[in-house]
Each structure stands twice: as C-alpha cells, then as structure tokens.
C-alpha cells in the first residue's frame, strides 16, 4: 500500500513537472510571437531604414534582453519576421508555369492594398529588404524552375535576362513604383504587369524556338569551340 502511495505521488509530481514545462514552453512561444508582432508593427508604422531592438522591446512590453533570449541575433529576428509576413500577410502562392504569374500578381496586388504601408516598407526600406531577403531567394528559385522549360535552347545570358525580368515584374517593388510614381491603382498595375509578362513570355518562346531550329544557341563554349574546329 505504501509503495502504491509513493508511486502515485511520484507520478503526480512527474505529471505536474510536465505540465509546468508545457506552460513554460507555451509562454515562451507567446513571448516570441509578441516580439515578432512588435517588429512587424514597427516596420509598418515607422517605415524606417533601421529598427532598434529597444523600440521593439517597448512595443512588445518586454526587456530588451528578452529579445536576445529568443533571437540570438538581429538576423534571426529579421528572418522570423520575414517568414511570418510571408505566411500571414502576403502569403506565397506556388506556381509551376510562368503563365500563372499575371493572375498571381493580381492576387498579390489586392494583398498589398490591404497592408500598403507594410508593403512599401518591405519594398523600400533597408530593414524591409533584409526581412524579405529569405522569401525573395525562394521566389527567385521558383522562377528559375518555372522558366526552365521555356529557355532550353537559349544562351545563358538570355536565360538570366528572362528570369530576372519575370522575377522583377512579379515583385512588390514593381507595385510600389507604379503606385507612387504614376498614381496607378492596383487593378491598373496588375493589367500593366500582365501585359508586360505576356509580351515577355511570348518573346522568350519565339527566341527559344528560333534557337532550337538553328541548333547553335544553348551550347557551352567548349562545345561551340569543338564544333568550330571540326568545321575547320
């Protein structure tokens, strides 16, 4: 009987410790998210090139050292903020073909309109550029994969140019520039980007088809050199 009581007490203590640990983890996650939220709010409200940890701490109502307890470096906080913005505000839209980009950008324009100050900060400020660095790399990689079937016969220089143009057009920078410099609405911006992307993709397909017929473009310098020697 005594051993059963001891076992029960031990089990209760273990359960209590697990419960306390769970609450501690939950509180830590809530604090971490509060810090990210405060950083995003500061980025949206202040649109500053730099955001101090003191300002973030004040908004989050935590000590500045608490920030570094959850984020070892500023870079970690910037990356976490970028992921949160991408997941919860602008939302990455996957695509397999560049022909999907005009409709995707039209959807993004509506999201930018819901958070215009944050979108502008992401596009124009130094802090915003650091925040979007992670998902921009991911997006550029997606453009590279999606464009691959269209540029199989083009030389590397033209492939790079086509990918760069498609990536830039499908970008908050394009939305911000047309909005601020030309006073265009998001619907007008989306129409203009669709026009530009459609024209670009049509030209890329024509160039690739011409290169395929010629059978010359797309070869490596070594192969072209070998072919030239054989002809000589």
Describe the structure in brief:
By secondary structure, the protein is mainly alpha-helical. Helices cover 81% and strands 0% of the residues.
General description of the model:
The structure is a single chain. With 232 residues, the protein is an all-alpha fold. It folds into two domains: 1-72, Homeodomain-like (Arc Repressor Mutant, subunit A), CATH 1.10.10; 79-219, no CATH class. It is built from eleven helices and no strands. Helix 1 crosses helix 6 and helix 4 crosses helix 7 (126-147). The model is unreliable at 220-232 (pLDDT under 50).
Task: List its traits.
232 residues; mainly alpha; Arc Repressor Mutant, subunit A; 2 domains; 11 helices; 81% helix; disordered C terminus
